[in-house]
Amino acid sequence: MNAAALKETARILYMAEAEKREIVRITRDYPELTVEDAYKIQEELVKLKLKRGNGIIGPKMGLTSRAKMQQMNVEEPIYGYIFKDMIVPDGGKINIHQLIHPKVEAEIAFVLGEDIEGPGVTGEQVLAVTEYLIPVLEVIDSRYENFSFTLPDVIADNASSSRVVFGEKVKKPEHLQLDAVTVSLAINGEIREQGTGAAVVGHPANSAAMLANMLARKKQKLKAGSVILTGGVTGAVMLTAGDSVSAQVEGIGDASFTVCS
Ligand code: 0L1
Ligand code: MG
């Protein structure tokens, strides 16, 4: 894909998100789209959002569960970015009409006390510099019709990022084994999905380490203070108006929101 087409594709994705409109996946017209070009489209999309006054809260990892990786036939998760305008206050409301076909998943976010730079970063190194943990509800809302996409499509679409609800930030408990921590996702008081931290590439810190190593390919690093979403511990559940959604992360805390119309 040439530079003009990369920019134009980013603009189409940007407009689809802004107008809450489904589009056909990019790879229908560009079947040869590579992962590398898909990240270039994502970069253009990020630039567009920044140019329009939005700000980055931090990076996110996506497709971090074995099931999702197998489904997409990939060896490595993907990343995208969470922006300021995606934040919904804890206990707040999300209007279903402002989104296309949202799903929600429960995650754990890390906040580092020091920058960390790949390649070669390990989960242990990430844990050593992790200052805070945050329970997170991430709303994903692919801009593609029927959530129908290939790997390059979803990368270009900023890993389906849409909304995020952060629970209270807590100082990382000294002896908490994050891989063994249970994370539950409840809708209207009923647990719909549950998993342990190990569902995220073995340990959520491994996910952050993989992200540091992926960012190193473009000479970037994980920055102290930014909020890093490590990926869904639970499966993603479709949202409908009237839903009351909560996530509980054992030993860390919870987060919630309601869906209105
Ligand atoms: O945060 C995520 O894991 C979403 C990655 C994109 C896949 C999807 O939209 O289902
Ligand atoms: Mg996610």
TrEMBL record:
Keywords of this entry: Lyase
Residues passing through the membrane, by range: none
Enzyme Commission number(s) from the entry: 4.1.1.77
Record bears the keyword Lyase: yes
Pfam families: FAA_hydrolase
Gene3D superfamilies, per database record: Fumarylacetoacetase-like, C-terminal domain
One Gene Ontology term of the molecular function aspect: 4-oxalocrotonate decarboxylase activity
Xref: InterPro entries: Fumarylacetoacetase-like_C, Fumarylacetoacetase_C_sf, Hydratase-Decarb/MhpD_sf
All copies of domain Fumarylacetoacetase-like C-terminal, residue ranges: 71-259
Protein name: 2-oxo-3-hexenedioate decarboxylase
Gene for this chain: dmpH
